[in-house]
Amino acid sequence: YENADGTSFNWEEVDDPAFAGYNTMSPADRAVLFLRDTQDESGAIIKQHDGAPLQTTVQDKVKALLGAASAGASAKYLPYGNEARIKKAYASRDSRLSANVITPYAGIVGGYNYSSAGNAMEVFWRWPISGGNATPNTTQRDDMAVDNANHFSYYHRKFVYEGAGLADRNNGPIDEPLIRYADVLLMWAEALVELNQLTGTNGAEGKVAQVRSRVNMPTLPSNFASKEKARDYVRDERRREFVNEGINFFDEMRWRTWKESKFKFSAGEKGQTETVWGATGNAGSYKWAGDQLYVWPVPQTEIEKNPNLKATPGWNY
């Protein structure tokens, strides 16, 4: 997601010297910048929602992550102020970022019992946490409970029901969109790019601008300087706009970009993809099966009915 002025975001341009060299840091060194505060302004161990000191298990996790980083990186950790510093990276950004995902140390109104309206409270995405939550009183937690507590992740905000008092946690008041005018405009922009009608109100630039103006984001003409650049920009705009709307996956498949955007290459295996980006543990077994995935196979039953139909190459029947 871009800066609010439409320029590309760069971690090394965040207004704090701790981010210098971020793009070449190891994952362990980067993790230091995302750690939660463990002390308050006075230097005392920070208090939780119920007034108890921060759990020692959480403090130990912070110490372990600092120990895994280099000495130079661990020295950047601020027991008080680490949270405020990382929040700088998410300020003055395209507002769709914070609308689509829960950014670090942001809050969301949740509930420890979804069926009782009186149980709604604001919880915050902090890291690390201990188990599902970081407070001993499970009915008064103020850390967001997550399933994958061992890893830092971005969690969905868009279309997530807030508060409590729901009759069923799987159903809520938000309707699923079938089609939005933004989708029409950006498909239109894609077509205009392929026709090389790139700039101006009637070109791809103009259609993209109609979408971005809704969130007060400028559309920079430099992104439409060439057909290739405009194509990439329109695709990125669709990625930003349609999170959680059942569109992104099928876009990547029709563009044939799913492999390059979601998988990393194996070291020493030229041209071979290995695992999903950022995968750890069992997730590492999820590998790219082959480019035949971009074309759905003709069903076996249809081939049996019609001898003129042939098996789709790459698929096992």
UniProtKB/TrEMBL annotation:
Keywords associated with the record: Cell outer membrane, Membrane, Signal
Localization per Swiss-Prot or TrEMBL: Cell outer membrane
One Pfam family, short name: SusD_RagB
Keyword Disulfide bond attached: no
RagB/SusD domain: residues covered: 55-315
Entry-linked Gene3D superfamilies: 1.25.40.390
Predominant location category: membrane
GO cellular component: cell outer membrane
InterPro entries xrefs: SusD_RagB_dom (IPR012944), TPR-like_helical_dom_sf (IPR011990)
Protein name: RagB/SusD family nutrient uptake outer membrane protein
Source organism (scientific name): termite gut metagenome
